[in-house]
Amino acid sequence: MDQLRRFIQLDAKGILGKIRLCLIKKLLPDLEDRRKYHEEFASSTSFHGVHNIVHRQSKARRALWLLIVTGCLAIVVWQICSRFIYYFSWPTTTTVVVQYVEKVQFPAVTFCNLNRFQAHAVSNLKVIFFIWNIVSAILQKIAMEDKYSQELNDFLLGNQNFSIKDFTRKNGFYLNSSTLLECDFFGKPCYPQDFEHVFTEYGNCFTFNHNDLSARRVSLSGRGLHLLFDVQQDKFTDEPTLGYTDAGITFVIHSPQELPRFDGLGLLTPVGTHAQVAIRQLKSIIQEYPWGECKPDIKLQYHKIYSTNGCLLECKARYIQDWCGCLPFILPGNGTECDLLKFYKCVYPAVYDIEIKGLCTVGTHNSTCPAPCEETDYPTTVTYSNFGGEKAIKYFSTKLKKSSEYIRQNLVRIEIKYHDLSYKITQQQKALTISELLAPEMPQWNNPSQNQPTHKGEKRGIQEC
What we know:
By secondary structure, the chain is α+β, with helices and mostly antiparallel strands. The protein is about 35% helix and about 25% strand.
């Protein structure tokens, strides 16, 4: 039985070997046939130069053509490789377009008093300034000194139901006919009810042309937004020991759909001065990664348009709500409002932890809040002059029944208008698309669009090579 199995295996190997030899003979021609095939291919191919390498009689010419063809192949390979290397470096170009229009949308402007609280409310309650520093540290990092910790602990333990939000809204800066003496928007009067209340690091602030109003489009027929404030230093105060020693109005110009951001962006107008602000509109369009740093699929929960500031606030709100089980009123969201003890014991350390660990980062595509794909900024130019002459001082002194010294130390005039009716668009574009990589445009000669002078009666076209 074993011998029969061994015989069958040997017989099978012999049959397979015969089949293999037969296939090799049919598939692989002999040397002469292969030489003829190669000569026919070299004679009929459209690959330039190969024909001359094969059929030239002179060895020198054949060597020369071989050198030329090899060099051309090397150049082609180099061009293809360099093209792909350039494409995968994700290059971009930036175009700047200035567009002139008949009317342009006016931005939102948020105003705050540099003195945040009413003097009578904090005269015997200095701890309010320290509490507000803890609250506003969510928006702008402020270090608290340890020497105030005992005073804070005593107040918080004895006033657990105290609401800094309600206190600030009630006893902070207010906007009415006594603090807003004049308001004119391109020739039409405006009133305190045209301003929307918002909390910032300066306490109560007020936004003109906020998101709830329809977009205001304006022309240059008018002075712009003209306001006259009375900061009332005798009624509003701040704590000089904490570094708040200025008096006047601070304001920030921003998109109506974005929240105001004062951290390093606020413009200050001291008392007794007239500020004239000329603004421009600048739109920036950034490419998505890997060409740029934006991510177009990011949406915010509590903001209509994406911005790094809005994203950063929502990021902090999520972490604080997870850690502390409450939400600071100064952040967007619908969580339970944090009381003072939570602010001091949990929220303030949580903000510090977020900063140290880098849990909410901005800038690059892989950060928590990358750059927006579209952004509108308002670059400003501000000039200052002393408020009014002697006649103006006397006029307001009689009108307000205040002394000339009071007028110089409390009134602030602000005028905001567009520099011109244009907006600038800075757009980041892909320097090389896939279609351009695979099929680059052919150069055109004598193209009139290439800033070449064209004389009368002269015809220009594409020359034949």
